[in-house]
Amino acid sequence: MDNAPAKGVFTECQSTPELWYSQDPWHIQSAKDICFKDCPLRSGCLGLALDLEQGQPVKLRFGVWGGMSPTERKNLELRFDIQKGTR
């Protein structure tokens, strides 16, 4: 599955990367809000992060991708694994 962003599509994260890779709770929430409100690529972005991070611990995951924090993405991965019966 190709989760790469579409060429020629501009997203907010391209102009304000400090929000997506910050440890500041306000920045993290702002990034999530933008993802869920405005981003046409949110699901593809989340899919790409899940593909790239598969099996990685939370401490090796960074930034907000597809509107989710590293912990939220790891929890989502674990839920999928449980549903598939792989954990």
Describe the protein.
- There is one protein chain.
- The protein is 52% helix and 0% strand.
- The protein is mainly alpha-helical.
- The protein has a domain at 41-87.
- The mean pLDDT is 85.
For this entry, give a set of tags.
87 residues; 4 helices; mainly alpha
The best one-word shape is: globular
Head-to-tail CA distance between termini: 23 Å
Quick check: average pLDDT?
Answer: 85
Low-confidence spans: none
What is the percentage of strand-forming residues? under 5%
**Helix share, percent:** 40-55%
Q: Main beta sheet, described?
A: none
Total number of helices: 4
Cα-based radius of gyration, to the nearest Å: 13 Å
Tell how many strands the DSSP assignment holds: 0
The helix/strand series, from N terminus to C terminus, equals: HHHH
Structural class: mainly alpha
Please summarize what this structure is.
By secondary structure, the chain is mostly helical.
Could you outline the blueprint of secondary structure elements for this entry?
Blueprint lengths: L16 H4 L4 H14 L3 H12 L16 H15 L3
